[in-house]
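TASK: fixed-backbone design
INPUT:
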């Protein structure tokens, strides 16, 4: 009996010991499961590159709405390495003194490899970045389409919140019609609004003259008759059209046509905003005149309630037709 009892106790002890081991193993497995995602989330990017160039490479990350920062890495025996973290996929440029132009690509928290073609950086082989692959595929479609502008217009309509759209617009701005570029910039939404290149585009909109009808009227500052600083965005008619009338106290023709313009706009639900250039001590050198390409007086610009330029450099005989159309709307 004693033997059987001892054996029974021994088996029970082994079972309890085994149960404790199983529980411990389960706990370790659970901790590993919890730890792995944490490590993945904390993982940064690692960019390994190979090149025939010697010296230092510079990697610039455009990872803020209006800021960027740069990293440098030496190229030893044809290899270089960059590491870091980004909060979201961002545009980056890789530069070297011997490269004829920067290599642009997207960086996200992943392992990325680059085989640099120093003579033609745009053909460098890049692997490991899903965002970079999507961007390059977009550019292949854009450049390979029969009508690149029509393709970009449709793509922007379907992908207004894409992080790629501001970068594409900024890079291709020289090849795009100003009116189309302004239109597409105005369509950017979502994540695209929080990119470095969207900030550059907005700056371009503010500083570039609104020379094309159908474009967004840029905001500008001017001095009123009381020498108070005003901004067009705050003084324009948000509920209807605005006729900007640039004039001067010494301009007799301006006074004459201003009276005619006032009569024509009667009942047209249009605000007449008169800006006398001699209210500004800089006169003809006032910044807004250059910004808006106003080069003679009187000068009229018609802006609709959405802030879009309907017509510019309007003659007094053309204003009558515009006012009539406004009454019929």
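OUTPUT:
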């Amino acid at each position: 009996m004693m033997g059987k009892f001892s054996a029974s106790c021994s088996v029970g002890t082994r079972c309890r010991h085994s149960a404790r081991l199983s529980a411990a193993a389960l706990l370790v497995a659970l901790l590993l499961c919890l730890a792995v995602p944490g490590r993945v989330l904390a993982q940064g990017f690692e960019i390994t590159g190979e090149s025939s160039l010697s010296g230092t490479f510079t990697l610039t990350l455009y990872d803020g709405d209006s800021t960027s920062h740069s990293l440098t890495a030496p190229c030893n025996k044809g290899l270089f390495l960059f590491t870091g973290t980004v909060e979201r996929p961002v545009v980056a440029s890789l530069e070297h003194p011997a490269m004829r132009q920067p290599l642009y690509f997207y960086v996200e928290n992943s392992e990325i490899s680059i085989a640099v073609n120093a003579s033609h950086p745009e053909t460098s082989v890049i692997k490991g970045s899903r965002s970079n692959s999507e961007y390059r595929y977009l550019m292949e479609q854009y450049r390979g389409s029969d009508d690149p502008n029509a393709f970009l217009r449709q793509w922007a309509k379907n992908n207004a919140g894409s992080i790629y759209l501001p970068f594409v617009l900024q890079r291709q701005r020289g090849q795009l019609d100003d009116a189309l570029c302004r239109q597409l910039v105005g369509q950017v939404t979502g994540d695209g609004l929080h990119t470095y290149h969207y900030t550059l585009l907005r700056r371009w909109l503010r500083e570039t003259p609104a020379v094309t009808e159908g474009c967004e009227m840029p905001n500008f500052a001017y001095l009123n008759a009381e020498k108070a600083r005003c901004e067009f965005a705050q003084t324009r008619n948000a509920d209807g059209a605005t006729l900007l009338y640039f004039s001067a106290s010494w301009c007799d023709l301006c006074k004459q046509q201003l009276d005619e313009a006032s009569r024509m706009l009667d009942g047209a639900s249009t605000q007449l905003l008169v800006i006398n250039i001699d209210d500004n001590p800089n006169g003809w050198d006032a910044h807004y005149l250059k910004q808006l390409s106003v080069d003679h007086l009187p000068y009229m610009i018609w802006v609709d309630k959405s802030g879009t330029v309907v017509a510019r450099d309007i003659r007094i005989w053309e204003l009558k037709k515009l006012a009539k159309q406004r009454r019929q709307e």
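COMMENT: Residues 221-328 form a domain with the Glutaredoxin fold (CATH 3.40.30.10).
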